[in-house]
Amino acid sequence: RGGEMAKLTQLIDNEVFRAYATYATIVLLKMMLMSLITAYFRITRKAFANPEDTASFGKGESAKKYLRTDADVERVRRGHLNDLENIVPFLGIGLLYALSGPELYTALLHFRIFAGARIAHTFAYLIPLPQPGRGLSWAVGYAVTISMAYKVLKTALYL
Amino acid sequence: RGGEMAKLTQLIDNEVFRAYATYATIVLLKMMLMSLITAYFRITRKAFANPEDTASFGKGESAKKYLRTDADVERVRRGHLNDLENIVPFLGIGLLYALSGPELYTALLHFRIFAGARIAHTFAYLIPLPQPGRGLSWAVGYAVTISMAYKVLKTALYL
Amino acid sequence: RGGEMAKLTQLIDNEVFRAYATYATIVLLKMMLMSLITAYFRITRKAFANPEDTASFGKGESAKKYLRTDADVERVRRGHLNDLENIVPFLGIGLLYALSGPELYTALLHFRIFAGARIAHTFAYLIPLPQPGRGLSWAVGYAVTISMAYKVLKTALYL
C-alpha cells in the first residue's frame, strides 16, 4: 500500500500535473461562484423558480408574484451554463493533455490563458461589457482547448 | 505492456482512489437517473419540447398542443441542471483530491457526505420538501467540494 | 523529475487509456461544435439573448426586436444540454473504466459505440429525424455508460 500511495503522490508531484490541478480547481471554483451570484440576485430581485422558495414571503397570491424570471438572474444563469459548456471540455481535454507529456512552459501557457479568458468572460457577461468583449474572451478559451485537443490526439490517437 | 497495465491497476487498487471511483460513479448514476425521470414526466404529462416527439399523437393541431412546458417536467430539469452544476466540480476537484494523498478516513468522509447531500437534494427537489431542506442539502455538497479544493490547492499549488 | 514524467507518459502509452483519450476528446470536440452551431443560428436567424449582442443592429427598439428566441437556436441549445447531461457521465465513468483494467477489445467497443451514438444523436436532433431515431441513439449511449459503470463498481467498489 505504501508503494501505491507513493505512486499517486508522484502524479501530484509532477509539475505539469500540479499546474493542471491548480488551474482546473481555480476555474471550477470560479464556476461554483456563479451559484452564489445567482442566489444573491434571486434574493435581492425576489425572483424565484420554485413555489417552496417563496413561502417565507407569505401564502397564496402574495408569494406567487415572486415566481418570476428576472433579467439579472437569467444573465447569471446564462453565464453559468456557458461555463459548464466550456469548462467541462477543459477539464477532460486538459487532464489528458497534462498526461500527454507537454513542456511545462507550454502547458502553463495553455492553463493560464484559459483561466484568464474564463475569468474575463465572467466579467464581460456580468458587467456587461460591450461586444466583442465577451465573444473574444469566449473564443480565446475555446482556441486554447482546441490546441490541447490537437496535442492529445497527436500523442494518443488510438481509434 | 504488462508493466503498464499493472501500474494502472495499482491506481484502481489504491483505497482512496477506489472510494473516489465508487462515489463518483454513484453520483453520476444518480444524475443520469434524472433523464429517465424527465422522460417519465414528459410522457405521463404529455409535455414535449420537439415537434417530432409528438408525432405519435397525431398530426397538425392535435399534436401541437403537447408542445408545451409542464411544471413537473421543468422541476426535474432544474434538478438535473443543478446536478450538473455541482457534480462536475465534484468530479474534477474530487479526482485531484483523491490524488493529493488524503487520509482514507477523511476522504471517505468527504465522498460519503457529498453523495448523501446530493441524494437528499434530489428528494428535496422532487417531493418537494419545504425550504431550507433543498438549500441546506445543496450547501453541504458545496462545502464538501470547497474543502476538497482547499486540500488540492494546499498540496499541488503551482501557478 | 525524469522518472515521474516517464510514469505519466506510461499512462498515455497504455492502449486502453489512449483509446479513452481519443474518444473522450472526440466527443468533447463534438460537444464544443454545438457552440459554433448555436452562434451560426443566432446570427443567421438574428435571435439573441443579450442586449449587448444586438447593439450592432442599431439602438433602441430597432435592436430590441432581435432579443428573441428562435426555434432552430433553441433546438441546438437542447442538443447541447443533452450532450452535457450524457457526455459528463461518459467522461467520469469512462476514465474510471479505463483505469479498471478492461480488455482492450471490450473497451474499444464501449468507446466506439458511445461516440457513434452521440454523433448519431446530434444528427437526429438537428436534421431532425423522426422518432425513435433520437431516442434510440440517446438510449445506446446511456446503456454503454451504465455498462462501464457496472464494471467500475465491480472492480473498485469501496463504500
UniProtKB/TrEMBL annotation, chains A, B, C:
<feature type="transmembrane region" description="Helical">
    <location>
        <begin position="20"/>
        <end position="41"/>
    </location>
</feature>
<dbReference type="GO" id="GO:0005789">
    <property type="term" value="C:endoplasmic reticulum membrane"/>
</dbReference>
<comment type="function">
    <text>Conjugation of reduced glutathione to a wide number of exogenous and endogenous hydrophobic electrophiles.</text>
</comment>
<comment type="similarity">
    <text>Belongs to the MAPEG family.</text>
</comment>
<keyword id="KW-0808">Transferase</keyword>
<feature type="transmembrane region" description="Helical">
    <location>
        <begin position="87"/>
        <end position="115"/>
    </location>
</feature>
<keyword id="KW-0812">Transmembrane</keyword>
<dbReference type="GO" id="GO:0004364">
    <property type="term" value="F:glutathione transferase activity"/>
</dbReference>
<dbReference type="InterPro" id="IPR040162">
    <property type="entry name" value="MGST1-like"/>
</dbReference>
<dbReference type="InterPro" id="IPR023352">
    <property type="entry name" value="MAPEG-like_dom_sf"/>
</dbReference>
<dbReference type="InterPro" id="IPR001129">
    <property type="entry name" value="Membr-assoc_MAPEG"/>
</dbReference>
<protein>
    <recommendedName>
        <fullName>Microsomal glutathione S-transferase 1</fullName>
        <ecNumber>2.5.1.18</ecNumber>
    </recommendedName>
</protein>
<keyword id="KW-1133">Transmembrane helix</keyword>
<keyword id="KW-0256">Endoplasmic reticulum</keyword>
<dbReference type="Pfam" id="PF01124">
    <property type="entry name" value="MAPEG"/>
</dbReference>
<keyword id="KW-0007">Acetylation</keyword>
<keyword id="KW-1000">Mitochondrion outer membrane</keyword>
<keyword id="KW-0472">Membrane</keyword>
<dbReference type="GO" id="GO:0005741">
    <property type="term" value="C:mitochondrial outer membrane"/>
</dbReference>
<keyword id="KW-0496">Mitochondrion</keyword>
<comment type="subunit">
    <text>Homotrimer; The trimer binds only one molecule of glutathione.</text>
</comment>
